[in-house]
Model the fold of this input.
Amino acid sequence: MPLTEYPNLTSAADAFAAGEVSAIALTEACLARIAAHNPAVNAVIRLDADLARERAARLDAARSRGEAMGPLAGVPMMHKDMYYREGHVSTCGSKIRSHFVAPVTATVLSRLDAAGAIDCGTLNMAEFAQNATGHNAHFGDCRNPWNTDHCTGGSSSGSGAAVAAGFAYAALGSDTGGSIRLPATMCGVTGLKPTQTRVPRTGVMPLSFSCDNVGPLVRSARDAARFLKVVAGRDALDPTSAREPVPDYEAALTGDLRGSRIAVIETYFLDGADATVVAAFDAALEVLAARGASITRIALPMMRAVNACTALLSRVESAAIHANWMRDRPQDYATHLSARIYIGYGVPVASYVGALSLRGPLLREFVAEALSAYDLVATPTLRIRVPTRAETDADADSANWGRMMAASANTRPFNYLGLPTVSIPCGFDDRGLPVGLQLAGRPFAEARVLAAADAFQRDTDWHLRSPTLA
Amino acid sequence: MDQDFTDSTIAAIARWHGIAVPNPLALVALADLEASLAEYAAIREGLLFEDEPSSFEAALAATKEPG
Done:
């Protein structure tokens, strides 16, 4: 079955619910694409084909008995290898945890199971979710399906590549500084980082307790809306999860942007941007304007303060988590990762606490300046063209360090601010690699963010395009 | 990169965390840290802390979209 028959999560789920296609057929189609193309893409860490077939057969049998089906029933998925499933190994993309058997099942996996999703296995990722390019010294770099010489983006590298290549209809990623949105933009799929606290983190490998987020990589904004409805909401096991009600996100997808006000922040986010990226971004703004949105370009000097504080938080929190391994077995990390973790120990504690304490005031200031007179802000997700794996490989050449670290420049401020942010495909650069449009809204405004993304996707077909795999 | 910063940071990390420089790339990374700390020092005097009680979660709730 070609991917074009059911090109995204919602079409596959709706077809299964209507009895038009079996879960077995959807699963076999994904497994066939994995068998054919994963050797070139290297997105998969563990394939649970037999478990997936058993699960699909049970769903088909349940449907034939007339049992109620969940909103994601029959849909094959795979997830970043840092979502724990009790009794299964979760490598976190590392050598250090290559034999780590998870003691619990992540709440988000339990919720996806309950919604009828089919879990086909685990996906490649940056080691311990800590680079923005997708390099991995232990499992091999995941390859961008659009051009295997180029980065997938990280850290959810396998999630972006697997969804783009049709190995799965959806994949969980995690996002501490852009790790959902960067592979989404570089692989040409849709990625949603929800509001901080919106989705519980129970049973998810920690990186930075202040900035970690759970969210999906999928093939449309509507897919993200349906997925988020399933995984969002308070979890008694995660006291940091929000008590905010979970709305019907799909109901908000009306296609109508009349009256919507979108701010383009010109300060910082466009600094040094590649012309080919700016051209795609400007064209995307015209699409939104044609749907009825007003577009206003604004300056935002406070971005300097946001960035200064952003640079400190996750470094320190990651350093604390990894301290014992950094003392006892630093050689088991990739070179770039031990270097990255190391500098976290050099942040003065008063600076870290200052950056943490200023998060609330800076969020209030950002909302007052950018999200009061406007409903959304728009930026390119990645301000440069998708780089090659070679030119960002800091392990091979320390001169590449700066390019490796710069990839998350446009995404990480929204982690510090905790705002819901989506990345959607909006074109291709002059080398044929995807370009992404990033939209952010107020806290818990996922419905508005996704509504704008969906409206854009009603008038464009960038999200429907698939790479040609050899 | 300021050699004093490098030397003193390496010494402090070793003293307080028991962790040695893992590889030469970490010295390159230290330049990033120096720049980050300098940037924070440049902006901190212009920032105002909130009166207590204050929290980021409270700010998320206070700034969410009406309705």
Observations:
- Chain B has one domain: 3-63.
- Chain B has three helices and no strands.
